[in-house]
Amino acid sequence: MEEKYKQHPSNIIKVVLFGPESTGKTTLSEQLARHYHTVWVPEYAREYLQRKWNNERKTCEPNDLLPIAEGQMKLENELTKKATDILVCDTDLLETKVYSEAYYIGRCDPVLEKFALENTYDLYFLTYIDIPWEADDLRDKPGERKEMFSYFKKTLEKYDRNFIILKGGKKERLKTAIEHIEKLLEK
Question: pLDDT digits over 2-18, tens only?
Answer without folding.
Answer: 889 999 999 999 999 99
